Structures are given as structure tokens and as C-alpha cells.
Amino acid sequence: MPIPVNHSKPVRQSAKESAYNQIQQWIIDGTLQPGEKLNDSELAQALGISRTPVRESLQLLETEGFVQMFPGKATQVTEVEKESMKDLLPPLAALQALAAELAVDHLTTDVLDLLETTNDRFAKAIHSENYYAALKIDEEFHQIIVDIANNPYIHRIIAHLQAHVRRLFFHNSIVLTEKSIEEHAKIIELMNNSNKEALSPIMKENWLRTIDEIESLQ
Hints:
- It is elongated, with a radius of gyration of 19 Å.
- The protein is mainly α.
- It has helices at 15-28, 40-47, 51-63, 85-104, 109-127, 131-149, 152-171, 178-192, 196-217; strands at residues 37-38, 67-70, 74-77.
């Protein structure tokens, strides 16, 4: 089980939180491959913590669908199923649209500037064909909106769904296009104009278009 030794360890977190965040990240980015067996002793040694918080984090990751535990036998990373995109993206799109509507009521000039500069960075990543960076910046763009919406329940559910979507995007080499740049710009414009009625459908389209693009490649 190859585990990096030069990863950055989160600070001001409990051992359980640190283990959970790092193992989840390794699963998302493919460091820990689908179907790979996990050894809690090796994970504990790599993370510099005891086995107990590692086991606790693996139990949590199992409830979230990232690992599957077979008592007395093994713990394995779950498989990546491209078809699950059809189940994940619609609820995420709906919540992202709702977050955008709520964010309009908390909008400031600084937030608008941040969204615009983030979209500029996103555009540069796409134009330079750095699609991995584009995926991360795209998530950053949407997270700004979710944070400004200031609804802890939406924030929590989106974080859970987003983690699975991130894994699917990375493993399936999803390529974001010029269309996403244009949609981001339109989202900023509609938020600035407080046009919630037009904002919701374009936010949903920004997420759901990926389903159609994947199906067209099959």
C-alpha cells in the first residue's frame, strides 16, 4: 500500500480529523486506488498517530461510501462508478443553486471581486490546458458562494457530495471547457444584479451539463 511520506499534516485538528481528511484526500486523488486494501497500522505510522483515530476515521469514511470494511478480514477503498454521477450531480446542482440565491443577500464588493479574480484564474488554467488545476479552482469558485450563503446545513451536505464528485471528476479525467468560464461570468453578473430567478437555472446547468458531456463520450 504506497503511502506518501512528504504530505503536509493539518494543524489544529484532532488526530481523528487529521486522519479522516488525509485518508479521504488520498482516496479522492487516487493515491489510494479503488479496491486497494488499507492497513490501519501502516496508515497510523504514516500519519504519526495511533491506530484508534485511524480506525475511527475509517468507520466514518465507510458511512460516507469511501471505504468498505469487512470485520475480521480487510478494509478496502470502494470502486469508482461513473454512473453514480447521475445520482450525485442533480442534488448537488440544486443545493448549489439554492446557495447562490442565499448568497445574493450577503453579497459585497469584495466577494464579487474575489469571484471575478477566481474565474480569471480558472480561465487561465483552462487556456493553458491545466485541467487538474481548473477542477480545483472551479471548486474554489463555487465554495466562495456556498460560504457566503452562510447556511451550515447546506454547507455540510454540499461538502459531503462535493467530495464524491471531486473523486469522480479526477478519476474520469473530466475536462472543463470555455463554456464553464462563460457560465461563471454569467453567475457573477446575475448575483450582482440580484436576479435570483435567472441565477438558479444557470447554476444548475453549470453542474448538470457534465452528465450530458459524459454520456456523449460513451
